[in-house]
Every structure is written in structure tokens, then in C-alpha cells.
Design a protein that fits this description.
Layout lengths: L1 H16 L16 E7 L2 E7 L6 E6 L17 H6 L3 E5 L8 H18 L5 E7 L1 H12 L6 E5 L7 H17 L9 H16 E2 L2 E2 L1 H13 L12 H8 L16 H4 L18 H7 L29 E8 L6 H13 L5 E9 L6 H17 L37
Parallel strand pairs: 3-4, 3-5, 5-6, 6-9, 9-10
Antiparallel strand pairs: 1-2, 2-4, 7-8
Length: 418
């Protein structure tokens, strides 16, 4: 009888310890709450931990902030929920602004090490990012395995440098179809003048396109993620209205003078698509569009690993949220990263959920909290959550499962969700 009891106790212990953090000590019970701010390596930070801390830690990576100087700390959008569930969270403002994830990944690792030293080692750590923070999340998981036990992104640039490629491909298509040498602009001021004085009159804008504008929009439809049959992403055009001109990106004709983000951008591998019957054939489009190459070492895995193409080699769970009508960070980046994980044999570690909505990072609290809780269950208990198939042959109905109330402009508004 004693032998049986001993075996039961041993089995229970093994079940409790099973997970990606077997060597991490459990958090002490009834520790006092922590609410702390400070500066580390030129980056401001926040640390919040509840009194009933259960050992979980969330590291938050905010989106891009413009301008000079260090960034500002951003509180996670579900900070209250994280604390309420007994987990701690930390956030860095980053030592700089603009699109520089190669710096920001290091800032978050340094803050994570500070937490370990001053608070204690967590049982697991989730890295959670928005927009540019999605690039930070994926690069952190791929380049620093073992630091984090899971990832969560919202409207994230999950395909890394793919976001720079997309913006440059968008601009090159606009240049060709408008018949205006936009990418020859020597500086950003000249670029803006050409954009407003010549590109807009040639193409029009969403909802008021010219004939050439309709050609351009067909190209954009595929760049943003339309399926092989040509089904458009729900609410894509509505989302594009907000960012139609914002997406036009200037790159110095001398690419070596550019920032790491723009030095790495390339359109050499882009295969453009366009619907038939619009007066511009697909082969002609691909033959005539300007191809832009990255700087010599701009996306080198050894020299600039954060700006190299992602490998898709995940070692821990990643759950992503994205909107169908996000023109700023399009769903096509989710599709590209899904393909990378399938090639790498890690597709089982990626779950993607899609919301039918125009815009960028507009998820409600319920969807965010549900995703977070599902990710925690996946990490702690091995319960893989449900998601969407972003590579489905028909994307016209994608996202219905995760959309609480369909947007009034959605063609399927009022219909029963699946």
C-alpha cells in the first residue's frame, strides 16, 4: 500500500512539473505586490506584480513610436487582466524610437534579466507585442530560444522584414501604374510633393479611383492577402482608405545611407498579381515594375539577423491576432509566416486568429483576454487552442468565428456566424 501511495505522489509531481520550464522554481506564495518604474540602459521601464503572483510573467513590446529620443513606456492593453489572473508584467519604453527592433529585443532581454535578479525567476515568460512588437516577438523566439516560453501578437509584423518588403512593393506598383518616377525622389520632402501633386491625381484614392487606380487597387488586393481565386479580404478597402498614402514609402536612392529597416527591404522576390480585364497584364506588370535590392548585408543572417528573413523555426507556442482590413500591417504577413513554419515543420506551434474589421490593432478586450488565457493554457497544460486557416482556398468568410459583431460595412453583416 505504501508503495502504491508513493507512486501516485511521484506521478502527480511529474505531471505538475511537465512543461517548457522544468527547472524554474515556483513563485513564493503571498509575496507583497510590486509596482516599480525606473530606467535601464537608457530605456524607461515599468514592473507590475500582484501579491498573489503565481509565477507567470508577460513581457510587453509596444509598436513603433516616431521622433527622436528614447521611447515612452506603454502599458499592455490587458494589463488589468494579467494582474487579475495572478501574473506579473513588465514593459520597456526602449532606448530609442522609430523602427529598430534590433535594439529593442536587447532592451527587453535586459529588463527580463532585471526581473529575475530583483523579483525572482518566473515559471514561464510570454512575450507579447503589437505591430512592430510582432517583429520583436518572432525574432526573439527564433533568435533567442529558451528566453520565452510563448508568444502573443496583435496586428503584428510577424514576418519580420516582410513588412518593409511589402511597403516598398506597394510603392513600386504605384510608381509604375501612375507613370511617375516616385522612387527617384532624392529626399522625403520631394517624395511627399510628388505623391500629392502627381500620384494622387493619376490614381485617385479608395472610393474614388481612376482607371489606373483600379489597376493599382487590384495589385494591392493581392499584396494584402487575397486568395488564389481572387476573393478579397473582408473590409480590406475600408481599411486601405485610412492608410492609402501612408503606405507609400521613401527610400534613399543610395540604399547604404538608409536605416537598418530600409536597408534590408527588397522587392526582387515579389511576384505581383492583378485581376484580368483591367488593361494591364500580369506578365507585363512583373516585367516592368522597378525591382529594388537590399543593401549588401542588409538582410544577412549573420550580420543583421533581426532583419534577415524569418526561419519559421519556432520552439514554443505562438498565438497571433490580426484584422482582415489592416492595411498598415497586412494579413499577407501572417500568410507568409504560416508558410515558413510549415516549411520548417513547426506549424503545430502557430495558431492564428483573424478578426473581420478595418483598421489596425482595434481588438476588443474580450478577444485579447481570451487569446491570452488560451495561450497560458497551451503553455501550462498543453491545450492547443483553435485558430483560423489564413491559407484557406476561400478567404471570403475568414474571421467569422472570432468576430463578436460583424462590422456594418461587411458584406456578410447580419448573417449567422459559423
Amino acid at each position: 500500500m505504501r508503495t502504491v501511495v508513493a507512486l501516485v505522489v511521484l506521478s502527480a509531481a511529474l505531471i505538475v512539473s511537465r512543461g517548457p520550464w522544468p527547472g524554474a522554481p515556483r513563485a513564493e506564495a503571498q509575496r507583497p505586490a510590486v509596482s516599480r518604474s525606473g530606467s535601464l540602459g537608457g530605456a524607461s521601464y515599468l514592473i507590475e506584480m500582484p501579491a498573489n503572483w503565481g509565477g507567470g510573467l508577460v513581457v510587453f513590446a509596444h509598436g513603433v513610436q516616431r521622433g527622436p529620443g528614447p521611447g515612452a513606456v506603454t502599458v499592455p492593453p490587458i494589463a488589468t487582466h494579467i494582474i487579475g489572473e495572478g501574473h506579473a508584467w513588465i514593459a520597456s519604453g526602449f532606448r530609442a524610437r522609430e523602427y529598430q527592433p534590433h535594439l529593442f529585443i536587447e532592451d527587453l532581454i535586459a529588463l527580463r534579466e532585471l526581473f529575475d535578479k530583483e523579483i525572482g525567476q518566473p515559471r514561464w515568460t510570454i512575450i507579447y507585442g503589437q505591430a512592430m512588437g510582432g517583429h520583436i516577438v518572432v525574432a526573439s523566439l527564433e533568435l533567442h530560444p529558451g528566453v520565452y516560453q510563448g508568444g502573443l501578437t496583435e496586428c503584428g509584423a510577424v514576418d519580420g522584414i516582410g513588412i518593409a518588403d511589402h511597403l516598398l512593393a506597394y510603392t513600386a506598383a504605384a510608381e509604375l501604374i501612375a507613370g511617375v518616377p516616385l522612387l527617384d525622389a532624392p529626399d522625403r520632402d520631394s517624395f511627399a510633393r510628388i505623391l500629392n501633386a502627381r500620384i494622387v491625381p493619376a490614381l485617385g484614392t479608395p472610393g474614388a479611383y481612376t482607371t489606373r487606380g483600379r489597376q493599382f487597387d487590384s495589385v494591392v488586393k493581392y499584396l494584402m492577402g487575397a486568395d488564389q481565386a481572387g476573393n478579397d479580404l473582408p473590409l480590406r478597402l475600408q481599411g486601405l482608405q485610412r492608410d492609402f498614402l501612408w503606405k507609400m514609402t521613401h527610400r534613399d536612392p543610395d540604399v547604404e545611407k538608409e536605416t537598418p529597416f530600409r536597408r534590408a527591404a527588397s522587392t526582387v522576390h515579389i511576384r505581383y498579381r492583378i485581376d484580368p480585364g483591367l488593361g494591364l497584364a500580369e506578365d507585363e506588370l512583373n516585367a516592368r515594375v522597378r525591382r529594388l535590392r537590399p543593401a549588401k548585408d542588409g538582410r544577412s543572417p549573420s550580420a543583421n539577423p533581426v532583419y534577415a528573413e524569418p526561419s519559421g523555426r519556432l520552439t514554443v507556442p505562438l498565438l497571433t491576432l490580426h484584422e482582415t482590413g489592416d492595411a498598415r500591417v497586412p494579413l499577407s504577413l501572417e500568410q507568409s509566416y504560416r508558410r515558413r513554419t510549415l516549411t520548417a515543420g513547426t506549424g503545430h506551434l502557430l495558431v492564428q486568429r483573424v478578426l473581420r474589421a478595418p483598421g489596425h490593432c482595434g481588438f476588443d478586450g474580450e478577444m485579447r483576454e481570451r487569446a491570452f488565457d488560451d495561450l497560458v493554457a497551451w503553455i501550462e497544460r498543453g491545450v492547443r487552442p483553435e485558430g483560423d486557416d489564413v491559407l484557406a482556398p476561400d478567404l471570403s468568410r475568414i474571421g467569422l468565428k472570432w468576430t463578436p459583431a460583424l462590422h456594418p460595412e461587411d458584406p456578410l453583416f447580419g448573417r449567422t456566424t459559423r
